[in-house]
Design brief:
By secondary structure, this protein is of the alpha/beta class. It has helices at 8-21, 34-53, 55-70, 81-93, 108-111, 126-137, 150-156, 177-183; strands at residues 73-77, 97-101, 142-146, 166-169. Helices cover 50% and strands 10% of the residues. Strand 1 (73-77), helix 4 (81-93) and strand 2 form a beta-alpha-beta unit. Helix 1 (8-21) packs across helix 2 and helix 4 (81-93) packs parallel to helix 6 (126-137).
């Protein structure tokens, strides 16, 4: 499947170049044993890469805020334009992972307002299309999808949502507050 962004490679390069150009490292090391030094070296490479990738966030909310974001598991109900844009921003920020719950297929109407889908995706499950594209933006974030109407899943299996740190509900019919009531019990 081709990307809905004609210049996705350029976008990824720009994000990478912006993150790596700042040079913020912030890494402090202790210990002198060679085995620890080797382990520290591997960890340092991961930490340095992480610091470069998330430099802007680290400057805004610090290491603790970034660590909290990186441990966040998000569930998106419906991957329309508002939900897809919100998810994109969270993925670029470095959440741990996400699951999209959406039973819709990509329609012609989606092409005019959801930049995460392209004409080649018409008729495909919208959750799959958005998941595939959003995961391309940050390979450190795990993405999955469930092809089901959110209202149906809320009614059938409210405990499903307990595994997430946050649930973002967009374009949900009915009473979205029922999700919290059902997931938290009577």
């Amino acid at each position: 499947m081709s990307s809905a962004f004609p210049n996705l490679g350029q976008l990824k390069d720009e994000l990478h170049n912006t993150a790596t150009s700042s040079g913020m490292d912030g890494l402090q090391r202790t210990g002198t044993e060679s085995s620890l030094a080797a382990a520290d070296g591997a960890a340092a490479n991961n930490t340095t890469s992480r610091n470069k990738r998330y430099d802007r966030q680290l400057r805004i909310w610090g290491a603790d805020g970034q660590a909290r974001l990186e441990s966040c598991k998000v569930c998106l109900l419906n991957s329309g334009p508002t939900g897809a844009e919100t998810l994109k921003n969270l993925v670029l920020g470095g959440i741990s992972g996400f699951t999209i719950v959406d039973g819709s297929k990509v329609e012609a109407a989606d092409l005019g307002n959801n930049f995460m889908v392209g004409p080649d995706a018409l008729g495909e499950p919208r959750a799959k299309v958005v998941t595939d594209l959003v995961t391309e933006l940050n390979d450190a974030v795990a993405g999955s999808y469930l092809e089901e109407a959110p209202e149906s899943l809320i009614e059938r299996s409210p405990q499903f949502f307990a595994q997430f740190t946050i649930v973002v509900a967009t374009q949900v019919t009915g009473r979205p507050s029922a999700l919290g009531e059902r997931a938290n019990g009577p």
